[in-house]
Amino acid sequence: MSAVKKSVVVERLRKAQIVEFLSKEKRLDGRGLLDFRPIKIETGIIEKANGSARVRIGNTQVIAGVKIEIGEPFPDTPEMGLLVVNVEVLPLSSAYAEPGPPDEEAIELARVVDRGIRESKMVDLSKLVLIPGKKVHAIFVDVDILDTDGNLFDAASYATVASIATSTMPKFSVGQNGQIKQEDEAVPLQINCIPVSITLAKIDGEFIVDPTSEEEGVMDARITLTFDDDGNIRAGQKGQPGTLDFNQVKLAVNIAKDRAKEIREIIKESIKDAKG
Amino acid sequence: MSAVKKSVVVERLRKAQIVEFLSKEKRLDGRGLLDFRPIKIETGIIEKANGSARVRIGNTQVIAGVKIEIGEPFPDTPEMGLLVVNVEVLPLSSAYAEPGPPDEEAIELARVVDRGIRESKMVDLSKLVLIPGKKVHAIFVDVDILDTDGNLFDAASYATVASIATSTMPKFSVGQNGQIKQEDEAVPLQINCIPVSITLAKIDGEFIVDPTSEEEGVMDARITLTFDDDGNIRAGQKGQPGTLDFNQVKLAVNIAKDRAKEIREIIKESIKDAKG
Amino acid sequence: MSAVKKSVVVERLRKAQIVEFLSKEKRLDGRGLLDFRPIKIETGIIEKANGSARVRIGNTQVIAGVKIEIGEPFPDTPEMGLLVVNVEVLPLSSAYAEPGPPDEEAIELARVVDRGIRESKMVDLSKLVLIPGKKVHAIFVDVDILDTDGNLFDAASYATVASIATSTMPKFSVGQNGQIKQEDEAVPLQINCIPVSITLAKIDGEFIVDPTSEEEGVMDARITLTFDDDGNIRAGQKGQPGTLDFNQVKLAVNIAKDRAKEIREIIKESIKDAKG
Amino acid sequence: MIELIDEKGLRRDGRRVDEIRPLKIEVGVLKNADGSSYIEFGKNKIVVAVYGPKEVHPKHLALPDRSILRCRYHMAPFSTDTRKHPQPSRREIEISKVISEALEPALILEDYPRTVINVYLEVLQADGGSRCAGITASTVALADAGIPMRDMVVACAVGKISGQVVLDLNDTEDKEGEADMPVAIMPNLNQTTLLQLDGILTPEEFEKGFEMAVNACRHIYEVQRKALIDKYFGKNEVGEE
Amino acid sequence: MIELIDEKGLRRDGRRVDEIRPLKIEVGVLKNADGSSYIEFGKNKIVVAVYGPKEVHPKHLALPDRSILRCRYHMAPFSTDTRKHPQPSRREIEISKVISEALEPALILEDYPRTVINVYLEVLQADGGSRCAGITASTVALADAGIPMRDMVVACAVGKISGQVVLDLNDTEDKEGEADMPVAIMPNLNQTTLLQLDGILTPEEFEKGFEMAVNACRHIYEVQRKALIDKYFGKNEVGEE
Amino acid sequence: MIELIDEKGLRRDGRRVDEIRPLKIEVGVLKNADGSSYIEFGKNKIVVAVYGPKEVHPKHLALPDRSILRCRYHMAPFSTDTRKHPQPSRREIEISKVISEALEPALILEDYPRTVINVYLEVLQADGGSRCAGITASTVALADAGIPMRDMVVACAVGKISGQVVLDLNDTEDKEGEADMPVAIMPNLNQTTLLQLDGILTPEEFEKGFEMAVNACRHIYEVQRKALIDKYFGKNEVGEE
Lengths: 276, 276, 276, 241, 241, 241
Fold this sequence. Notes:
The complex is a heterohexamer, with three copies of chain A (276 residues) and three copies of chain D (241 residues). With 276 residues, chain A is an alpha+beta fold. Chain A is built from five helices and 13 strands. With 241 residues, chain D is of the alpha+beta class. Chain D has a single domain (23-231), classed as 2-Layer Sandwich (Ribosomal Protein S5, domain 2), CATH 3.30.230. Strand 13 (244-245) of chain B pairs antiparallel with strand 9 of chain E.
């Protein structure tokens, strides 16, 4: 209990400080309100995976790995392959993460990242069918959160996108008896766009992008928006028990849309070499 | 703890009061010892289900829904369809119900209701086979307990019976390749009898039927008996750590048998229109 | 907490006493350092199982039962049958065992016993194939720990070995349509060797075999070694947070190798009649 | 793409693009709960029970300065086209979280320190928009339980089908359409408490849709109010359309 | 329907309709347990261990005026025709509950407030009637543990096969027969502590069967007593038939 | 049997029988953790985080006279040839236990009574010998966290392939070979803290192999030391081969 009580006091002081800085359009680490921290994306770091990427945004560090296997389609989509994005908030990542099954925060994180990728139609699932209704390609993207300093939604999303974009696809052939063989050959996985997630935190009425853990600790609300290459919104999620007034909702879209363009270039750069 | 201690005292006073009333052949709500509270049964309330029923007994309220799907038979009964009755004691239903997997009381409730239906052979499972040993009809009856004021065993049973009795059965055809297609047509599900569950509570040596939550709180023992249309006993379950002397066991059968006849008429009435 | 504190004190006194005895090459129950307690092995005690054995080592009592069924091979070993050894530390077995899923100690126990059997190739899994890649024999050995007085690793291993060695194998025939039928006939399960597990406890620098619960309570380290008929080591596992110096590691092998020969004769004797 | 809007501008179920489905709200439908409600919104049928404020167990989870709000959105196994397993899915867990965050801004939780308020939603039948219907009903149940509130919370989805922005998607429209965006607002405080989106919307469609949703919420708010007024002050029939 | 009774009135295993299977009870078969027993009843083989009365953890579950009785009926994976998964099934959980309720009336739990008594049953081999055999053995183990009792509890099933009411169904009779009714009684207090039934019985068959079961229980009670007397006072062989 | 050693005595990956795979250790790779490390050992890639010593929750699990060490070895789903389910397997639970027991003798846990030290290992990519690499990296992370130690712990496996005793099996050698024996030692105290074996070894091969492993550990220890020295005192590149 004492730890909790202490953190309440510290949090208040820290919030006051963060708010004071925001009122001067500044942040504790010197960034402007709409600046990201440095983003570093490395791909191809896990040889056993079909694709992989490590993303660092400031001190936040995540790794995504792609495995492409054979699976069975869902009964209601017999002619679609499978794409599953899973996020694990590992106990390595902070003093507050515990081992065990994902809690509601981790589930929301995984589902929002998944929706951003899925709704953008980055991967055309209809091209992943081997035997309609029976066997399809199943793309599993697993994201390991290794070190947490805020903005996990965007970091996990970028790692997912970069790992998919640099994946190779094993070739499978269907024999006459319906048996499936994996061939030695592999081809790059085709992608249709680079979805970009942008998360805004609202603190004391102001929006900032790429919040640190500390900023998240005092934020009132969070909104994550994912854009495709054409600037369309593909997914959105407001989080936290704070509210947004109606103009702020529209403002959030405009801010995020601009940021998404810039980040897309960073992601593109990181996957360029791998795509060769 | 204090809540528990208080409830112990209240329970004792309440028990004394209930017992005093029973000694005058009366109950707190004015009923005679062998009277049910008003029973209200509505069917066809969930359009997406194959059958459904809401049962209210006094303030107790439960809803049962039937889903008929394709399943695989158990290995030891390859020529039998499946019938599964499941009961969920929802956290909506009382201040004491908690979310989470069913506890031993909920499991007993579900299994006793299930046995009453199963043993009465209300549904002829041998007529639910599509491809022997491989594909059969699977009838799932799920009962949601919405509001708890005693006698869940009977309420859940009546809802199960009424929902099955008013179910329509989707027609499936087996193609030459063994693939199963659901056709648009649907036929009423055939039933063989109307099993009726009667639960008696023993308080201070006296039997009452249809106990309220308060009466259940002070009962010594409980006995549930299920009868078919011909007055045969199809299932029985004594519950709670109290005992029944040997004559009481026989007495319970006689009381329950009479009550079952009356209740069967109420259930029949409720399903008449639907069957029409 | 008080129970724990008391046990700490008792443990220290007991350890002092055990150590004093060990310094005179003796043990509390009068045994020499490298003596086993009496071992009693009964086989064929569970008629419904394909094989079974009860092993008592002193007051430790375990029962193993074998079930041979049809299963699907692992994808990476399509031409191998299955052998699974599972150990349940039942709440019957001591005041410290709790109902529930196995904890890490029970999992280690099961896996070490399993490895000893598996690595010794006691059963030739390549002979257990019915339809390659699809249907194989699956041998399940389940060990129930009924009464715990130390040396569960060896007791569980001997019970597993004796139950497998006395198992009969149901005969299955594969029909033209690929359907599998169990025939009435049964044949003895062929075995290749009698693996023998020997567990040494290190207390105050000395090795003893077959530790009691009390001795285990004060041991620094444990080492379990499994030998085949030719004296080869097939499996090993050091346990507990104590250490072994480099010479002790070699000494442990020599001690265990000798003991294994003797115990193998006891096991052979116990399975002789059954195999006859 | 299936044609979901006909040449007259009407949807499969006959609605105009800016028309919500039939809506009915009842208050106080359960006896044990401290507050309760029942909503029919299209084919959605949802019961909500509120228990609390009450003591937190275990006690160390209690907050010294306010009450904790916990929501549980759960679907009955028979509520969906194919039977749903009774165990909560990841989808249900996420929806429980966003519903809780959508309701919390309206509640004055500081009035009940060291307590918990549980909101249980049981979806008896699910159609498109069940989370919105659930939020709308939950506020009513919270009011029925006497929990002090700053404002009501009302929710309605907007979406895109056959290329047009339309209000309140039903199940078919949700599955076959191009976008779905649930929105919850506090109508008097003019605040958004829930916003989710999946599909594809241009920023312009987003703005248009968001405004449609806000307007629909204001309309639904009147139904909420009427249900509560009828329960507490009057006897007029509750319902609409 | 398979013929389970031949023209001489004998059952497949040679028993008369009112005859129980061979029965053997041993006391004190485990060293760690505070009390223990082993029963063979037909092909049923069951070990029972009693631990307690001992402190309750966590403490807030303790009852101020009496001990808590907890039973766990568990089947070994090798006890059944096809391997049973070690995890407790819903059936095992229900049987654990009814066994606990069948034993509790016999125990003077008021003697040990704030404690718990655990009864663990491990079915090593299951035949028809394992819950009855388990109850019969559990009472013996509780007596062996020195738990004060008002009476013993004895159980035996009755059933209907080939149209006749018969005592103590074995596995085949249970599966192929028309009804099975386990009964537990306290033989000196003349009280029923367990009654379950599935199948089909007329009220008359019910009465007849119930009396058969009660009589069989009285007989089994003598075997229980002998097992305990032999353990504590004598050395005669325990068992029967 | 696949030929794993060629006529020149070289293994598939070109190594001699007594040669370990390329090894790289980094210190302090995570910001939140109290100590951390990263190891590449062949294709193994493992991150280790240490949190603690910190208060134990729930408190009654604390030990009055020393700290508790808890290790969690976990494999990322993408770390293996076919995707691994994120939930810990029985194998991972066993390995967590033996790693904990391998590290504990080196730690002076008495310095921090009533606390817990958590060591989390995440295997990003698994090759043969991941538990050894994990132990080697964990000690470095514990040192980075400032936990007082009696000695370092270093681990390396030895095995048998194509009939010969060889050092440090990779994945193929582990699967196709005849034996695998992971060993962990404290190099200054000359103590074995982990020993496991599966496969087939004669007692002579066991002795020879054990000595090979001990020598390899001494060599790996130098890499551990260099990694820590570079972190705390220097800037030279860490790594080898």
